Amino acid sequence: MLEKIQGGIIGVAVGDALGVPVEFKSREYLKANPIRDLIGYGSWNQPPGTWSDDTSLTLCLLEGLIEDFDIENIGSLFVKWYKEGYWGAHNKVFDIGGSTRYALDRIFKGESAKFSGSLFEEENGNGSLMRTLPLIYFLKDIKEINELYKVIKDVSSITHAHFRSCFSCFVYCVLGIRMLQGDSKNVAYKNMQSDVERLVASNSFNAKELKLFDRILRNNIWEYKEEEIQSSGYVLDALEASLWCLYTSNSYEEAVLKAVNLGRDTDTTGAITGGLAGLYYGFESIPEVWKFRIARYDDIESLILKFKIKLEKNENNNSI
């Protein structure tokens, strides 16, 4: 299990760090100047190996899950990052999404983290999807599909409470759980579709919202052409792009480079793809010249070890 946790968490950080220097660059620019390695500076003027808010909030969530599960505590850790640079690559914040900023400001001013996230359709950025990976390990033994959805929804809703964002996180986590349980990529995908169908069958979700997920849930996302895949900061674009990159590649390295070179929201597409690719292919699949060069590598490894110990205690106590 340790190797799978390392693969996923370090996979997020590496994918993120690969994308940071070229965030906002167009696909056309990156076709002419493709990313092949960790570089520095560029869009944010940060040294090589610097990861962004994607990884910072992933690590805050990971830390929150080590303690007793508490939405308020997780929200407080997010605020600590936002206000103090806690779990920043260099102990500072250089990038934050608008919806995340507004939600964390609300928590900072005293609002409950359970009600801080935006419910507006216009605020469906990828800010909760990018950090959701730790829930895959934390929830892997939960059998009841509605219980699984509730926890994922509650964590997403700290910043992004609209159904579209919560449901995107659920799709991503369920696929990751299937991979963690040993399914091959294609079997995991089919089982994810079945799991989601079970959830939908037992709830009265908005049919128009569900239809937006047809390319993933009714079809095979890898059958679409690259020009049909968007890589913006919109949550559905990010989910589709990350799954497309994972399923049209055969290694961690190929998946994350494909993700970053799609352009636009490069760090987040890289992070979301990198999480599942690292989980699936394992820690050893991540090139050493990348993983050992990321900022605060030793700190991340220490946190991962604490998380593994927590999961083992949960298994012994049969609890989350």
TrEMBL record:
Question: What Gene3D superfamilies does this protein's entry cite?
Answer: ADP-ribosylation/Crystallin J1
The record lists Mg(2+) as bound by: 52-54, 265, 267-268
Query: A Gene Ontology MF term for this entry?
Result: hydrolase activity
> Any idea which UniProt keywords this protein has?
Hydrolase, Magnesium, Metal-binding
**InterPro entries named among the record's database cross-references:** ADP-ribosylglycohydrolase (IPR050792), Ribosyl_crysJ1 (IPR005502), Ribosyl_crysJ1_sf (IPR036705)
Task: Please state which protein family the record places this protein in.
Answer: Belongs to the ADP-ribosylglycohydrolase family.
Q: What is this protein called?
A: ADP-ribosylglycohydrolase family protein
